[in-house]
Amino acid sequence: MRVSVPATSANMGPGFDTLGVALQIKNQVVIKPAKFHSVSLKGEGSNNPALKDNNMFISIFNDFYHNLSNRRRNFRFEFYNEIPMSRGLGSSSAVIVSAIASAYAIEGIELEKSKLLNLALAYENHPDNITPAVMGGFNVATVQENEVKFIKKEIPKHLKAIVVIPNRPISTHLSRKTLPYKYSKDDAVFNISHSSLLTAAFMSENWEMLRVASYDKFHQKYRMKQMPELFEVQKAALNNGALMSTLSGSGSTFFSMSYADDSKRIERELRIKFPHFKIFSTDFDNYGVKVDR
């Protein structure tokens, strides 16, 4: 059995803790019944042996599997990770979603995506991350009475994501601590209006509106000060034709969106300017978590 979950880019400028989109960068896990417990890890994180012993996936999987089956079995877990860890691309959400989906699938129990989404909420309380990981596409999401409420929009094939992954992380915990305790009324109105405009632009496919709509006053400038070159990444992406360019999650990755015809040129210009960063373009994912038995 194979379970795959896409990477996500959350916040998307003014959509703090609200807006997120899924990317064609995936973590996959293959699970097989076995005589003994074993773990193999390839791709992102494979140079960290501690991940095999202190594996959040296996802990969550075992909790759900034991509750569903009321028995213990040994499995071989084979992880193939494409999502960089601690770079603001939803690696934790991918682990949580894939672990829960795997436990249900290995027992042959059908699990609706809406239920999976709300089960994942117990481990990750940011709906802008877990919703696109489960559903794919662009999502507007909030939590009300411990339940995720969302609307999804699929992203057309003629659009691409350009991902700039710096060579060092930004601490999510420290990143949150840099944010103001209070915001002015003017800044609150600015972000509400821009987040609303950004959402309307996605839903109506008014891509030219994204540039104006994606400005933010709540979090990006505070977080980006921890890595000032990110201001130059954003400026370079927009100057070379990106439709929008925003910090991905709490960073340090920067997410840009463009027409497919422009993506390779923008990618090339960014690589010239930032040779020490990992930079590539990718499709969007419109499906979310996928289980193949």
Verbal overview:
This protein has 293 residues and is an alpha+beta fold. 38% of the residues lie in helices and 26% in strands. It contains eleven helices and eleven strands. The chain has helices spanning 50-53, 56-69, 91-106, 113-120, 127-135, 172-177, 185-204, 210-213, 220-224, 229-239, 260-273, and strands at 2-10, 19-33, 38-43, 75-81, 138-144, 147-153, 159-165, 244-247, 254-259, 278-282, 290-292. The strands form two sheets. Strands 1, 2, 3, 4, 5, 6 and 11 form a seven-stranded mixed beta sheet that branches. The protein has a four-stranded antiparallel beta sheet with strand order 8-9-7-10. The termini are close together. The model has no long low-confidence stretch (mean pLDDT 93).
Low-confidence stretches: none
Largest sheet: 7 strands, mixed
What do the pLDDT scores average to? 93
Radius of gyration: 19 Å
Helix content: 25-40%
Function: Catalyzes the ATP-dependent phosphorylation of L-homoserine to L-homoserine phosphate.
Organism: Malaciobacter mytili LMG 24559
Keywords: Amino-acid biosynthesis, ATP-binding, Cytoplasm, Kinase, Nucleotide-binding, Threonine biosynthesis, Transferase
Family: Belongs to the GHMP kinase family. Homoserine kinase subfamily.
